[in-house]
Amino acid sequence: MKNKNLVPEEVIRWVGRVVLLCIAAFWFVFALFSGAQGIGLLQNALNALPWLLLFVLVYVAWKWELTGGIIIACFGVFTFFFFNAYKSLATLFLITLPIILLGFCFITSWFLRKNKKG
Predict the structure, then answer these.
(1) Residue 1's pLDDT band (boundaries 50, 70, 90)?
(2) How many domains, the chain?
(3) Domain for residue 66, yes or no?
(4) Which residues have C-beta within 8 Å of that of residue 61, sequence separation ≥ 6?
(5) What are the tens digits of pLDDT across the range 35-83?
(6) 104, 15 contact by CB (below 8 A)
(7) Domain range spanning residue 16?
(8) Does residue 2 sit within a domain?
């Protein structure tokens, strides 16, 4: 087995991908099942649509890092206002800031790879 050197832009890229996929999966499942007991899973599925959109954005960032990173960071800013994160530090630190920072991981990875190529 070859011993690959860990390149910072690759580490940042994979951290962004994996952590954002975990966050999207967690919040999607949470939104899908929370409250579904009273009204049913299908009727509660609308609550999970924003997190399904986050899966799509992760796919976009997987293919086009800069574009996807900018859109994900904007999605994080949108969650700041959508969830009124300025009223709750828990919402700010658990939902909004991780999404924004992971969007910047994609942007940083793209920038580092672009500068390495010259």
Answers:
(1) very low
(2) 1
(3) yes
(4) 16, 17, 20, 67, 68, 69, 71, 72, 103, 106
(5) 777 777 788 888 889 899 999 999 999 999 999 999 999 999 999 998 8
(6) no
(7) 8-117
(8) no
* d(C-alpha 93, C-alpha 27), whole Å: 14
Whether the predicted pLDDT of 86 surpasses 90:
no
What per-residue confidence (pLDDT) applies to 78? 94
Q: Crossing angle, helix 97-117 and helix 8-33, to 10 degrees?
A: 150
State whether residue 88 is helix, strand or coil.
coil
- What are the tokens at 8? 């910072």
CB environment 6-41: b (16+ within 10 A), e (fewer): eeebeebbeebbeebbebbeebbeebbeeebeeeee
- Tracing tokens 């991780």 back to the chain, one arrives at 98
Q: Does residue 3 belong to any structural domain of this protein?
A: no
Q: Angle at CA 71, nearest 5°, toward 67 and 77?
A: 150
* CB-facing half-sphere around the CA of 86: CA atoms within 13 A: 4
Torsion of CA 23, 25, 13, 100, to 10 degrees: -40
